[in-house]
Write a structure and sequence with these properties.
This protein is α+β, with helices and mostly antiparallel strands. It contains two helices and eight strands; from the N terminus they run αββββαββββ. An eight-stranded antiparallel beta barrel has the order 1-2-3-4-5-6-7-8. The radius of gyration is 17 Å and the shape is elongated. It starts with 13 loop residues before the first helix and ends with a strand.
Protein backbone atom coordinates (compact mmCIF):
# COMPACT_ATOMS: atom_id res chain seq x y z
CA UNK A 1 0.00 0.00 0.00
CA UNK A 2 1.26 3.46 -0.84
CA UNK A 3 1.47 5.97 1.96
CA UNK A 4 2.42 9.60 2.22
CA UNK A 5 5.86 8.52 3.36
CA UNK A 6 6.45 6.11 0.46
CA UNK A 7 8.07 8.53 -2.02
CA UNK A 8 11.45 7.00 -2.79
CA UNK A 9 14.41 9.15 -1.83
CA UNK A 10 15.93 10.72 -4.92
CA UNK A 11 12.77 10.29 -7.01
CA UNK A 12 12.92 12.86 -9.85
CA UNK A 13 9.45 14.19 -9.01
CA UNK A 14 9.71 13.97 -5.23
CA UNK A 15 9.45 17.74 -4.72
CA UNK A 16 6.38 18.04 -6.97
CA UNK A 17 4.73 15.05 -5.30
CA UNK A 18 5.41 16.50 -1.85
CA UNK A 19 3.91 19.88 -2.85
CA UNK A 20 0.87 18.10 -4.28
CA UNK A 21 0.38 16.08 -1.12
CA UNK A 22 0.59 19.20 1.03
CA UNK A 23 -2.03 20.91 -1.16
CA UNK A 24 -4.27 17.85 -0.85
CA UNK A 25 -3.89 17.87 2.95
CA UNK A 26 -4.70 21.57 3.10
CA UNK A 27 -7.74 21.27 0.84
CA UNK A 28 -9.13 18.30 2.75
CA UNK A 29 -8.65 20.10 6.09
CA UNK A 30 -10.37 23.20 4.66
CA UNK A 31 -13.19 21.03 3.27
CA UNK A 32 -13.82 19.41 6.65
CA UNK A 33 -13.74 22.79 8.41
CA UNK A 34 -16.19 24.19 5.85
CA UNK A 35 -18.42 21.11 6.25
CA UNK A 36 -18.49 21.52 10.02
CA UNK A 37 -19.20 25.26 10.02
CA UNK A 38 -20.62 26.53 6.69
CA UNK A 39 -24.21 27.68 7.04
CA UNK A 40 -23.85 27.64 10.84
CA UNK A 41 -25.26 24.10 11.14
CA UNK A 42 -26.38 22.30 14.25
CA UNK A 43 -25.28 18.70 14.68
CA UNK A 44 -28.12 17.00 16.56
CA UNK A 45 -29.00 13.65 18.10
CA UNK A 46 -31.48 12.12 17.46
CA UNK A 47 -32.75 15.16 15.50
CA UNK A 48 -32.98 18.92 16.07
CA UNK A 49 -36.74 18.84 16.84
CA UNK A 50 -36.18 16.44 19.76
CA UNK A 51 -32.48 16.87 20.44
CA UNK A 52 -30.94 15.28 23.49
CA UNK A 53 -27.46 16.20 22.27
CA UNK A 54 -26.06 18.85 19.94
CA UNK A 55 -22.75 20.19 18.69
CA UNK A 56 -22.04 23.59 17.17
CA UNK A 57 -18.68 24.32 15.50
CA UNK A 58 -17.23 27.72 14.57
CA UNK A 59 -14.62 28.47 11.93
CA UNK A 60 -12.33 29.89 14.65
CA UNK A 61 -11.95 26.24 15.74
CA UNK A 62 -14.14 26.46 18.82
CA UNK A 63 -17.09 24.22 19.58
CA UNK A 64 -20.02 23.90 21.94
CA UNK A 65 -21.53 20.57 23.02
CA UNK A 66 -24.89 20.46 24.83
CA UNK A 67 -26.65 17.45 26.33
CA UNK A 68 -30.11 17.18 27.86
CA UNK A 69 -29.27 14.15 30.01
CA UNK A 70 -28.81 14.41 33.79
CA UNK A 71 -30.45 17.83 34.00
CA UNK A 72 -28.57 19.24 31.02
CA UNK A 73 -25.04 20.41 30.53
CA UNK A 74 -22.99 22.42 28.08
CA UNK A 75 -19.28 22.15 27.44
CA UNK A 76 -17.09 24.02 25.02
CA UNK A 77 -13.53 24.02 23.82
CA UNK A 78 -11.28 23.81 20.78
CA UNK A 79 -11.22 21.29 17.96
CA UNK A 80 -8.31 20.18 15.81
CA UNK A 81 -7.96 18.27 12.58
CA UNK A 82 -4.53 16.69 12.89
CA UNK A 83 -2.38 15.89 9.87
CA UNK A 84 -2.38 12.26 10.97
CA UNK A 85 -6.18 12.20 10.42
CA UNK A 86 -5.71 13.49 6.87
CA UNK A 87 -2.85 11.01 6.31
CA UNK A 88 -5.04 8.11 7.44
CA UNK A 89 -7.77 9.18 5.01
CA UNK A 90 -5.18 9.51 2.21
CA UNK A 91 -3.70 6.07 2.96
CA UNK A 92 -7.22 4.59 2.91
CA UNK A 93 -7.70 5.61 -0.76
CA UNK A 94 -9.54 8.83 0.15
CA UNK A 95 -12.32 6.95 1.93
CA UNK A 96 -13.68 6.89 5.43
CA UNK A 97 -14.09 9.48 8.13
CA UNK A 98 -11.79 12.21 9.34
CA UNK A 99 -11.01 12.11 13.05
CA UNK A 100 -11.52 15.39 14.88
CA UNK A 101 -9.85 15.93 18.22
CA UNK A 102 -11.81 17.88 20.86
CA UNK A 103 -10.21 19.59 23.86
CA UNK A 104 -12.69 20.77 26.48
CA UNK A 105 -12.26 23.94 28.53
CA UNK A 106 -11.54 22.83 32.09
CA UNK A 107 -9.99 19.55 30.97
CA UNK A 108 -10.87 16.47 29.07
CA UNK A 109 -10.67 15.47 25.46
CA UNK A 110 -12.51 13.33 22.96
CA UNK A 111 -12.24 12.12 19.39
CA UNK A 112 -15.19 12.27 17.02
CA UNK A 113 -15.46 11.22 13.38
CA UNK A 114 -16.67 13.41 10.53
CA UNK A 115 -18.57 11.69 7.69
CA UNK A 116 -19.84 14.72 5.75
CA UNK A 117 -23.43 15.04 6.95
CA UNK A 118 -22.96 12.99 10.11
CA UNK A 119 -20.67 12.91 13.11
CA UNK A 120 -19.95 9.76 15.07
CA UNK A 121 -19.31 10.17 18.79
CA UNK A 122 -18.73 6.73 20.24
CA UNK A 123 -21.82 4.75 19.22
CA UNK A 124 -23.96 7.89 18.76
CA UNK A 125 -24.60 9.49 15.36
CA UNK A 126 -25.30 13.23 15.08
CA UNK A 127 -26.98 14.56 11.92
CA UNK A 128 -26.23 17.90 10.31
CA UNK A 129 -29.06 20.46 10.20
CA UNK A 130 -28.83 23.88 8.60
CA UNK A 131 -31.48 26.57 8.44
CA UNK A 132 -34.31 25.32 6.28
CA UNK A 133 -33.70 21.60 6.93
Amino acid sequence: MKTLKSIPEGHPFADSITVGIEKLRSRRREGVLRGLTYGNPDWCYPDCQNATGAFKFSNNRTFNHSMAYYGGSTRNGLFYIYSSSIDEWFNNNFEGPIAIHLEYVGGGENKIYYYGNQLQVGETWYDKYTTGD
